[in-house]
Amino acid sequence: MTNPSRRDAFKILLAGASLPALPAAAASSTDCPAGGQAWRRGIEGQRQADQGDGTYLNPIIAGDHPDPTVLKDGKDYYLTYSSFYSYPGLVIWHSTDLVNWRPVAPALKKPLGTIWAVDLCKHDGRYFIYIPAAPDGKPWSIYAIWADRIEGPWSDPVDLKIADCIDPGHVVGEDGKRYLFVNGIRKIRLSDDGLATDGKLEKAYEPWRYPADWVVENFAPEGPKLLRRGKWFYLVTAVGGTAGPVTGHMVIAARSASVHGPWEHCPHNPLVRSLSTAEPWWSRGHATLIEGPAGDWWMIYHGYENGYRTLGRQTLLEPMEWTADGWFRALGGDLSRPLPMPRDGKKGTAGFALSDDFRRDRFGVQWSFHDPAPDEMTRVRFTQDGLRIAGRGTSPADSRPLTCSVGDRTYEVEVDLTLEGEAEAGLLLFYSQKAFVGIGFTPDTVKTFQYADEHGWARVQRATSRVRVRLTNDDHVVTLRYSHDGGKTWTLHGTRMEVSGIHHNVFGGFLSLKVGIYSAGKGAVTLGDFRYRALPA
Question: Is 291 annotated as catalytic?
Fold first, then answer.
């Protein structure tokens, strides 16, 4: 076939036709994990979506980046995602081709409790993020922050007092007024400045229902995202539950000539859905439609990776097409194969190095405290020796550890810990206070944490003032080592830990298993020379 159309190219790929051969240098940097997928390797061996041959392989942002909301701003694209208990949070990511993404800065620094699916939009030259949150045990409400530049500074949160709602989606109606749609699917009018409500919450749409015998978690209509194109408003919604059975979460759509309805169901519903556990991506849903650099169209949504729910919900990109009757269809299939890159995008650098000498502030972009108190950052001081964190609590469970999200299936991290006073510190894989594993050090004892408990029987008496710790996560099997001579010799920890079950379907919370460093007790720990490298599968 010569000069196939773009749609034909997608069909060729999905039918299993051969892809162009990778150059020798690129081929040497690929990896073939279970399931037949292959990723090109980038910074520190991290897997990257852009395969370097005109194709990409999902995820476009690996690791825990759920509920993506994406904004097209001229030739630039900006994305943020649910940050839950991590602060600073709501990191803004930037791309010029929809595949290669880099973080810019966190937009939210004031703790609001757990942050669920937000909406990023631009109106009259100003950027807004609408945030569902439940601060300090208060009921859920929708908050707003705004900025005149995407890089910030962003305002403090403004409570819109929209009670017991989540998943806001912003749209400007045919009347020129601003509206938020929320879970349900309901809507409420906003003031012209977008920082207060101007009406009552009301029912907007009764979503399409799947057949009763489909295996889903629950109905849960949520994540409304809206687009105006031509004479139609399009409403894209998630139903089926965001976790639970892998066949539950899905993408559906409706359209109306008015933001006030009536809405008609898309005849192609569901547009995206995982059909079996054999697929590489599970629980796919919560989509935003976005126009590509060349005027073609795409969906960005999230999904769990087959066998790696521990990584959280990752950000996925799927091509779509508009049909002659004004509807649209997804073209990516189960996303098991590379797909053609969006055309005419300006290629950028993807991701960033996680290794850190702690000489500069990477809070939010890389490091975040888990569920911090309002004064959490007072524990932090950058010194000539590294990052000093004062102790809090008595163990990893109540110390509000520092965490770092990772996106690889197998990896290794190392860090120097220097204890001060009666401090206790250690290296973890941390999901929540209910689920973590790792190793800790006091001035005289080495501790072992497994199943979110310390195993007293495993204590080792060992004087420690400075220690280098290594954690290897090899396909869910964790191996720990430590060195008291700067890495010249290593002690192998006597317990290996299997962590494949530490994820939302077991522990709740919609979180992921992150690298964690805790500082507890009366004293402080100084962190130095953090190193990260992804390992071949």
Answer: no
